[in-house]
Structures are given as C-alpha cells and as structure tokens.
Description:
By secondary structure, the protein is an alpha+beta fold.
Amino acid sequence: MKSTDKKIMKKVFVAAAAGLMFIGVACNRTVTPEAPKTAEDSLSMAWGVFDGSQWMQNLKISAQQKRPIDSMAFFKGYEEGLNDTTRFSYLVGAITGVQRRMSIKNDTIDYAKFLASFRAALFSDSTNVLMTPEDALSYIRANEEKKQERELRAQYGKNIDAGKEFIAKYCKEHSDCKKTNSGLIYRVIAEGTGDAMPKDGQVVKVKYVGTTIDGKEFDKNEDGAEFGLGQVIPGWTEMLKLMKKGQKVECVIPQELAYGSRSVYLIEPFSTLVFTVELLDFKDAE
C-alpha cells in the first residue's frame, strides 16, 4: 500500500470513529471500527462516514425545527433498508407515506378517505377514482391559495379596514370625486381633449406617481411609461379606459382592484393605493 493511501485511510478511520459514535449512541451499544485493510474497506467506511455524518446533521436540524427524529429508530430503519433488499418496495412506500403525512399535517385530512382514493388511483381503479389528476391538482392548488390568503388576512387584514376608512374620508373631503361600480374612486385634476378613450389592446403612454394611503411614494415615472392596456392592475386598466388624451386624474384604487393579497415592492398585501395619472397618448398596438 502506498504511503498516500495509508494517510487517506488513516484520516477516514479517524472520521469514521467520530461518525460511528452517533450510531453507537443511537443503538445503545459501542461500535469500534476496525482499521481498513483494503480499498474496499476504505470505500465502505468512507460511504458510512459520509452518510452517517450527513444524517447526524439532519437529525440535529430536525430537532431544532421541533420535529425530533428518534435516532435509534432511524438507525434500525436505515439498517433494515440497507440489508433487506426483499422489502425495497415496502420501505419506499413507507417513507413516501411518512413524507406525505408531514407535508399535509396542517391540513384537515381524513386519512381513510385519502388512502381509499390513493389506492384507487394507484391501481387504476376507474370505478372509484372520482377526480381526474388534473382536477385534483387544481383543487389542491386552489385550497393552498385559500389557506395562504387566510394566513395573510390574519397578518395584514388591518390594511383592508384602513383602506376602507381612507376611501370614506377621501370621498368626504373631495366632493368632486366619482365612484365606479367596481369601487374605483377618482377625480379629475386637468381635463383632456377630444372624446376618444383607450380601448383593450391599445398601448398607452402615461406619467404617474403612486403612493400608499399614508403618503409613502413607491413608484414614479415623469418621462412617460408605455405599456399595453390590460397589462397592469385592474384599477389602472379601468381608470385609463375612462380618460381622454391629456387628462390628469387622482385615483384611489381599493385593494381588490390593486394587488390584493400579493406583496409588491414596498406595498403590503391588501393595500389600497393612490395614483396621480396623466394620459399622454394612446395608440393601436403594432
């Protein structure tokens, strides 16, 4: 054996002793690794140390995240999976089931019904599969979106109330403001020319300043920004369709016509927004 190989094997042996301490503690027995004598011994030990060290860290992290894993039970399962090749399919199913349970533990799930549907889909039992995979995925996504919105409302719901209060105060202070059926509020600062107004599919050029209801500016363009009508938030699209060339307005856009539950730049979810908008020009898209 070359001297370099001996050095490498010595390092692996030392690392193995440290890594296998974890396994020894886990199984309530002392494991004393033997010094490797062949390249196969070294490779076996290297893989054991690498995998054991990685999982030692994973178990520590899991414990820190309040999801402790019993190290002894983990090792026994690992050992069984490594040695009993006849149970490969079963063990893959077991760990997949555990992973799924962890991923849906915060949802209200009837596990008996879940397993019945899982079995029907797994064995292509068309009689008992009551959803297509596409419909199932759509339902799961919609449910996740609703859950996320509920969580966001719990955290940022105050913005909805603040927006409503601001709109009521704004309308009271500005008798010349108008309100559309959707809830968009606006008042004309400077009149435009002509009778034509932008339509769907056209390109508009505008100057604008955007602020939150407490006056914080989050966006501004004084040179004139061009974009297709319909490529912006609903409140903007509706406002621009009501404007003439050269017209300048101040509009208050309720959260449901703005970004809703999304957080954008300095804008918190469910924020009502205020914009000063001047329509410089509009034309058909090329």
